[in-house]
Specification:
mainly alpha
Length: 240
Amino acid sequence: MTVIDATLPKKDRILIAAEDVFSRRGYTKATLDEIIALADTGKGTLYKYFGNKDNLFYTLIEEKHNKLMEDLHAITAEADGIRSKLQAYLNCMLAFLRSNKGLWLIVWYELNAAHQGIHPDFDENGDWVLTSLYGEEIAKEDEARLLRYYKILWEEISVLAKILQDGQDNGYLKYTNCPEIKTVATPAHKLTSEAIFGAYHLFAGIANGVFHVIDNDMDNGELTAIIVDYFLNGHAAQKV
């Protein structure tokens, strides 16, 4: 359990405590009582700053996500070439997921609602929409809550999708001339369905690897090299 500096502002103590409790308990089993006890503050203070449990969790996730996005944009902009950009992205994402495994497990599994048959997609304006695979109506409150987390995941994946799209455009990656173009709102550019599909599957593979397979002692650089080689070359004995 985290030991929190009692001299820190109450809001900071609550966020530190929330990260500890959510990471250990998961979203559903985490309680505000345990969080305020660890933060050594009152429930009224928590409600004052965050309103409720979901807003507290979202604030925690958003702060970490915003810093991650700054890092991803910076390191991929500095990298030269598609392979180097992929390696930079994957190395940064691997380090982040390993450091925030407990929290991103919650975002990936507990709050993405896939197990409830709720499916995200883009509309013709490039905005997220949620539909039920079983025809059940989604409550507006649930839809708004879920969309916040889908937006976060998409922003992280979209950096990778843009790298793949650039690789297709300059001939480094295979391009099958798919006629369907997805226009996405964030970031503001066009992506082929192939780039979106490939980015989602590569990201999902990385996330699931960190959550379930990858040994914590394995080096990020070595892991990145393996993933990039497998992604670019597949199982064929060919050089990209």
